Amino acid sequence: MRSLLRPRLNPDEFTHALAARLAAILPAPPYVQGPLRVALLYADAPYTLNISNAYAAYQRDATNADTLLIEIAAAIRDRLAHLNDPTAWDEAKRTVRPWLLTPDDANTLLYPTRGQIGELAVAYRFIRPVLGTAAYITPAVWGVSLDTVHARALANLRADHAIVSFLPVTAHPTVWRLAPRDRDAASRLLLPEVRAAILTRIGGPTAVLPAARDAVFVALTGPFGAPPAVFATLPAARAALAGPDALTATPFVIEDDALVRR
User: Are the C-beta atoms of 49 and 38 separated by less than 8 Å?
Assistant: First the structure.
């Protein structure tokens, strides 16, 4: 006998189904970036939604998928309306952090940015989810300048983990990986005290590779250090560059308290 049960949606099907619901209630239709990732514009501000939590709820109970999709879409719409309330900065400023973007991300996501490290743009996100992650929206909506956002983001980063430690890399006595190994690891390079700590620890010409947001490697270079191509030989660096948070395969040097390319 043929089953009358509706087949369970896979992640890609679920994402497109939710995007269709959002298109029916939002001013502009969303764009599906991939399974469980939806990008959209609301009040001229870009957002990227990670809907993994929504899909997990669907997997727990798929008996009434249509109702669940309607409820999720309505929750996203209501949250977006709240984020575009001028008072939302009072909430976001408690957790806003710098967030480094590759050129492709910066061109695709159109997040507000302030300055760059090499080709990496400095954007901002806050830990207040819209069913996942919420990107920082246009500062003008909240009546604050990007300089204000930048200062607060660095202050939050500094208050959280401004102290870094150095993990040795096997077989390379002049190469280390920075810890904590969280998604703020690369952003900490924006803090002058972290760059100073790196120089103090290395004690000579220093190369820095932010391979990914959670994977930063440093090395002593020059005649007594590692060769310039040492990062490319590290399995951990190659794995980071192949992951979803990859940033760059080209290292920087620290000169005059700044990360520069030579």
Answer: yes
CB neighbour list of residue 107: distance below 8 Å, 6 or more residues apart: none
Q: What is the pTM of this model?
A: 0.69
47 touches 88 (CB < 8 A): no
How many angstroms separate the CA atoms of 147 and 229, rounded? 36
Give the model confidence (pLDDT) of 140-179 as tens digits.
Answer: 667 788 888 899 999 999 987 767 889 998 778 899 999 9
Sheet holding 172-179, edge to edge: 165-169, 172-179, 215-220, 206-212, 252-255, 258-260
CA triple 96-77-150, angle to 5 deg: 15
Helix (H, G, I), strand (E, B) or coil at 209: strand
Distance CA 165, CA 176 (A): 9
